[in-house]
Specification:
With 53 residues, this protein is mostly loops. It is 0% helix and 11% strand.
Length: 53
């Protein structure tokens, strides 16, 4: 599914800054996007294993 390009949509817009978020890493330590300010970051996510997505 492509990123949203509508102004009134609350999704992520291509070319815009990502919203602030925190997620647990593989060791369950919380990681904040702001911790990587000024660095290149790749956020990779996918639906639950063995599900359609």
């Amino acid at each position: 599914m492509p990123l949203s390009t509508k102004k009134d949509d609350m999704g992520i817009l291509e070319g815009k800054a990502a919203p602030a978020f925190s997620l647990p890493d593989a060791a369950s330590k919380m990681v904040n996007l702001k911790d990587f300010k000024g660095k290149h970051v790749v956020v990779y996510f996918y639906p639950k294993d063995n599900t359609y997505g």
